[in-house]
Amino acid sequence: MQDLIDDLNATLRRESARLLAISDDAAARRPAEDKWSAKEIIGHLIDSATNNHGRFVRAALSDEMVFPGYDQESWVRVQRHNERSWPDLVRLWELLNHNIAALVGCMSPDSLSRLRGTHNLDQIAWRTLPRTDPVTLEYFVRDYVAHMQHHLGQIE
């Protein structure tokens, strides 16, 4: 799991510097009417971090991994990220993810690798798994980081 924590921290260092080099105006521009701006993508990643932090803690304390979902489009719309300060959004995203890296670093290997037969990763994971397949918290954390890296790749 240390490889994932190292990858997450390296991503945060690299991407924070890259993102902060983007101007506030450029970050608010949507590449197309139906596409999110960089601000909205980072806002979505902030929402993902806040939701998944709670999920990860709950999963560490349980033999089940069933969590509420959220309507990402509505969350982005309600929060109006395009009106926020770009550096503030980037810093918040970075700090939330450093917190997740620290959380994962504190978790016991058993908690991360224990198979859970009851889950809803068929609905809430980025790379879904059949409900009938047992899952681990490690899979879910790795899925979270892959989801984040995917969206970061959308920001030019």
Global mean pLDDT: 97
The biggest beta sheet is recorded as: 2 strands, parallel
Portion in beta strands: under 5%
End-to-end Cα distance:
29 Å
The poorly predicted ranges are: none
Note the total helix count. Answer: 8
Strand and helix order: HHHEHHHEHH
Number of strands: 2
What is the approximate shape?
globular
Structural class designation = mainly alpha
Rg calculated over all Cα atoms: 16 Å
Enumerate the strands of the largest sheet in spatial order, edge to edge or round the barrel.
Answer: 1-2
Question: How much helicity do the residues have?
Answer: 55-70%
Question: Can you tell me about this structure?
Answer:
Helices cover about 65% and strands about 5% of the residues. The chain has about 160 residues and is mainly α. Strands 1-2 form a two-stranded parallel ribbon. Helix 1 (about 1-20) runs parallel beside helix 8 (about 135-150) and helix 3 (about 40-60) packs antiparallel against helix 8 (about 135-150).
Give a concise summary.
The chain is mainly alpha-helical and 156 residues long. The chain contains eight helices and two strands, in the order H-H-H-E-H-H-H-E-H-H. A two-stranded parallel sheet has the order 1-2.
Top keywords for this entry?
3% strand, 2 strands, two-stranded parallel sheet, mainly alpha
Write the layout of secondary structure elements.
Blueprint: H1 2-20, H2 24-28, H3 38-60, E1 64-65, H4 72-79, H5 86-106, H6 109-113, E2 118-119, H7 121-124, H8 137-152
Helix pairs in contact: 1-5, 1-8, 3-4, 3-5, 3-8
